[in-house]
Design goal:
Layout: H1 3-29, H2 37-40, H3 44-64, H4 67-90, H5 96-109, H6 112-115, H7 123-147, H8 165-177, H9 186-206, H10 209-229, H11 234-258, H12 268-282
Helix pairs in contact: 1-4, 3-4, 8-10, 9-10, 11-12
Length: 283
């Protein structure tokens, strides 16, 4: 056996050891005899918000390029997986090993070009194959549900309700596009945005809160559709816009402070001038 193989086996053994240790820690925390009272009172619904929060914190660490923090946040996210798996094992549904086995099977199934040397090798071909395989999996699941006496699923039924609204909008639109229900070009979406904007203005004039909220939602949905057509991640784009706003507003704060007045004392014209100054400095 080569030295590199020995090193690889040592790494694998270390990973197995640490994973086993984490699972044992989680089991102890959930042990009614001497476990942690807080951990013991949790269930899937109470832990779910923490799972979402940890995923966002992973994304934040990546965006900041903080790899030390990313390591820690990935650990926190892994703990969420272990926590849910432990609760599922306690109720007899599945265990952590079943979670790992399921994702291993899925990744092999969805990468035939890697594991079976079949199919397209280009990024676009791989992406199409991935979506085709997912569609086949959904069809198989729907048949299984029907055979077991469950309701037949519609095309959009398995897009999770709990997703952030913007992310769910994109997924719903992508799913509908699979069967041809889509605008042919971004120009058509821009026209739809203009139409929805006009309807929002009309609703505002009527001073009907429910109608205003509905039309505003339609407008946001249309903007999400435009992002999809332009191949822009709307969540990432909005985060970047948020960061830019914070950066420029801090420039306003610095400029106002340099004038010896407070933000409350500053006029809108003064703040606007400092904002434009910050824009020019960035350009």
């Amino acid at each position: 056996m080569s030295k590199s193989q020995d090193q690889a086996e040592e790494v694998d053994a270390e990973i197995d050891h640490e994973t086993t240790k984490l699972l044992a820690i989680m089991k102890k925390l959930r042990d009614p005899d001497g476990g942690c009272p807080w951990d013991l009172e949790q269930d899937f619904s109470t832990i779910a918000p923490y799972t979402i929060e940890e995923a966002y914190e992973v994304s934040d660490a990546i965006e900041r390029g903080d790899f030390a923090d990313l390591r820690d946040e990935l650990g926190d996210l892994l703990l969420q997986v272990v926590f849910h798996a432990r609760m599922a094992e306690e109720t007899g549904h599945f265990a952590y090993k079943d979670v790992v086995a399921a994702i291993c099977d899925k990744m092999i199934r969805r990468h035939p070009h890697v594991f079976n040397a079949k199919g397209e090798q280009s990024p676009s071909g791989v992406r199409k194959a991935w979506e085709d395989i997912k569609s086949e999996e959904r069809a198989g699941k729907a048949l299984g549900d029907k055979a077991s006496g469950g309701d037949e699923n519609g095309l959009l039924d398995d897009v999770p309700n709990a997703l952030p609204a913007l992310m769910r909008a994109i997924k719903l639109q992508n799913r509908a596009a699979e069967v041809g229900f889509d605008w042919p070009s971004p120009i058509n979406v821009v026209e739809k945005i203009a139409e929805e904007s006009a309807e929002l203005v009309e609703a505002s004039a009527e001073q009907n809160p429910a109608k205003i909220a509905e039309e505003f939602g339609d407008l946001l949905f249309a903007f999400a559709n435009l992002a999809r057509h332009l191949k822009v991640d709307p969540e990432a784009a909005l985060r970047a816009a948020n960061t830019k706003f914070v950066r420029r507003f801090k420039a306003i704060e610095s400029g106002i402070q340099a004038r010896g007045i407070s933000l409350e004392e500053a006029s809108l014209d003064q703040m606007e001038a400092l904002w434009n100054e910050a824009k020019r400095a960035e350009a």
